[in-house]
Amino acid sequence: MIINGEDFFEAFIGVRDCFITGRKGSGKTLLAFAMAQYALEKKFIQGVLANIPHRLPKRETVKDSFVVIDESWQLIDNRFSKADYSFMGAWSRKTNTLWAFPSVFGVDLRVRNLQVERIADISLLPVRCWLYEWANCWGDKGHFLMVRPEEYFGIYDTHAIPINDGGAIDSLMSLLPPGIQLVQKKGRGTSRESQHVVPVVSLDDYHALVRRVGELESLVEQLRAFYVNPESRITHG
After folding, report:
1. Which H or E run includes 129?
2. Average pLDDT of adjacent 10-residue blocks, the chain of 237 residues
3. Cβ 127 vs Cβ 44: under 8 Å
4. By three-state DSSP, how is residue 127 classified?
């Protein structure tokens, strides 16, 4: 049960996307599904589309749905989204879609109109409570309390590793008129396609990117050593 959450949910319904942040294991995904259950009870939406298994009424389309993108940094990490925006969170009002983005790392600013984080775990026997703080992009802020968060245990698979968006973007694009092809700009101030954009859509892509960054860092160190000490040599494998 959520106490004093009216202003938070009003802010959420107003912007229709919410970035849920916090340390690992702080209940980010739990809050997302608690919000989804609230939206179902209030009949804002008809079901839930998520990229991890859950027990709430399921939807195969984003239309009239609550969409949960767990570990959303994998898909819309704020370091790469300027060059490769996935349209996630787009047209939410036109499709009557609510989006929740639980993520330990920062995500695209376009889905951070509302941000919430758990700031305290209050154990007042026999009742446990979690205190949350929220703020939107207009400066409104507040707090709410989740009482007995264990009531939401079992709604979703806590051990599931999300490897994609659960079909959210394919569903979103299927709602476009036939023959429409969207072209997004690559990089700031240019529509030219970049050959250096590395899309991160799965854990395999993420690990491959980490290896590539490591290789580049190693090369930079070799180049730095060469210019500091001209007698050194860069070896090529």
Report:
1. strand 127-136
2. 91 94 92 95 95 95 96 84 75 94 90 94 85 93 93 92 92 84 53 42 61 75 71 51
3. no
4. strand
The structure's pTM equals 0.75
**What distance in Å separates the CA atoms of residue 116 and residue 145, rounded to the nearest whole number?**
12
Q: Residue 166: give its domain's CATH number.
A: 3.40.50
Dihedral sign, CA of 155, 77, 18, 187? negative
Find the distance separating the first CA and the last CA of the chain, reported in whole Å.
60
Give the C-alpha separation, 111 to 81, whole Å: 11
As to burial, measured by CB atoms within 10 angstroms (0-12 exposed, 13-18 middle, 19+ buried), residue 10 is exposed
> Residue 206 class from Cβ within 10 Å (0-12 exposed, 13-18 middle, 19+ buried)?
middle
Question: Does residue 222 fall inside a structural domain?
Answer: no
Tell me which residue of 105, 111, 107, 130 sits closest to 34, measured CA to CA: 130
Smallest Cα–Cα separation from 33: which of 166, 129, 130, 154?
Answer: 154
Domain membership flag for residue 27: yes
| 34 CB-side CA count, 13 A | 24
Q: What is the distance between the alpha carbons of residues 198 and 205, in angstroms, rounded to a whole number?
A: 8
Residue 132: give the domain boundaries: 2-174
